[in-house]
Amino acid sequence: xxxxxxxxxxxxxxxxxxxxxxxxxxxxxxxxxxxxxxxxxxxxxxxxxxxxxxxxxxxxxxxxxxxxxxxxxxxxxxxxxxxxxxxxxxxxxxxxxxxxxxxxxxxxxxxxxxxxxxxxxxxxxxxxxxxxxxxxxxxxxxxxxxxxxxxxxxxxxxxxxxxxxxxxxxxxxxxxxxxxxxxxxxxxxxxxxxxxxxxxxxxxxxxxxxxxxxxxxxxxxxxxxxxxxxxxxxxxxxxxxxxxxxxxxxxxxxxxxxxxxxxxxxxxxxxxxxxxxxxxxxxxxxxxxxxxxxxxxxxxxxxxxxxxxxxxxxxxxxxxxxxxxxxxxxxxxxxxxxxxxxxxxxxxxxxxxxxxxxxxxxxxxxxxxxxxxxxxxxxxxxxxxxxxxxxxxxxxxxxxxxxxxxxxxxxxxxxxxxxxxxxxxxxxxxxxxxxxxxxxxxxxxxxxxxxxxxxxxxxxxxxxxxxxxxxxxxxxxxxxxxxxxxxxxxxxxxxxxxxxxxxxx
Length: 505
Description:
Layout: H1 2-10, H2 12-30, H3 38-47, H4 60-72, H5 76-79, H6 81-100, H7 105-116, H8 119-124, H9 130-151, H10 157-168, H11 174-187, H12 197-219, H13 223-238, H14 248-251, H15 258-270, H16 278-294, H17 305-320, H18 326-350, H19 359-367, H20 377-389, H21 393-396, E1 399-403, H22 406-415, E2 424-426, E3 443-447, H23 451-457, E4 458-466, H24 476-479, E5 483-490, H25 494-500
Parallel strand pairs: 1-2, 1-3
Antiparallel strand pairs: 3-5, 4-5
């Protein structure tokens, strides 16, 4: 028994699993550094109201969040375990793809580590978002495609179909990747599979998995399409789609592994060794083209890169084979030194390792707002509770809380019950479907609203408190709308106000 265990961990898969376990331990050690992200707070609330669909995403992400609530309660580290597992599994898949393409153990290790230091991987292992699982499904799809093309066994269309279905139940962008695969099938010898019943069984399976959410969308007038349209227009207006291509090496793949991805694309599209897998090269090109034309953020293409890193690692080994020993040593030495440097740099900039207000924190805060949006939520709840408990008892009995965004609503519903607060209302996303306080409160504490806007809605409004955080970190809550307002007497009925005031965010 001991020998079998020892032999397993000496195997290729065993080595990759050890690497993934180390990655998971890293996230478990660092993921409790700050606090919940605003997106996580929304998902936490959605997890307590499970349905076959939500405004922002399909049902799988809140379902996974519900499992984590059952397993770990509201532990910050516990809530991020599945995300950390997802990116760790992606590293294993990258190594396995390299193995399927003919790579030896060192090639598999190179592919796995190169995938593991991608900025998107470091970010999504440190926060619970649907992107983490979309990333996993996308990479899983490419692995199953490699298995299909290598074995020529059409039964692989069943796991391909299941993966597409699960991906669509996680994030609708899986549809873009699935469409790219379909076009690539038509453009390559893989179109021979069109005569196979297994392909169509896979298509049917993906539709069957998606069906509950599709029915929910029909019942809710395809509300997610309206949300995605709003999001697209907002991102265009804010310039978030600018630099789609130039942003790839800073988000979807690590800058130092770009040469491997280019080698990987060359492998699929032009090399004799990659002819069997040409479908994957076309899938990559078609997906990037569609996103580039329609407008997308740089990280949307992230699931494409592990399969490129795997083939790039294999091709690098092929190119170096037979050369004098000094050249492979030099090439691999340079590549591994670059990976080490790039990995450390992006860990410091993207992973939650820097103490708040440290020099590295200040640098990361200028580059992105990921961590700043994890600060100050308990303080917001305590500030609102102070306003609520300062009211006379008769006012408390008819007081409600109305928030301007989903982060505030999620935070107040997470921390509020222990502070004696009523359920927070919000007009945003799926919170809108949960409705207004059935008491139709006459006294309302508002967060996320400007004073002028609030006075248009209520007969009387005053600033009751100023929200902040002990670190003086500037984020959306402390910068854009720090006022906590106390208002009385909504100028119209709650049903009328609610019906006309839905928001997306």
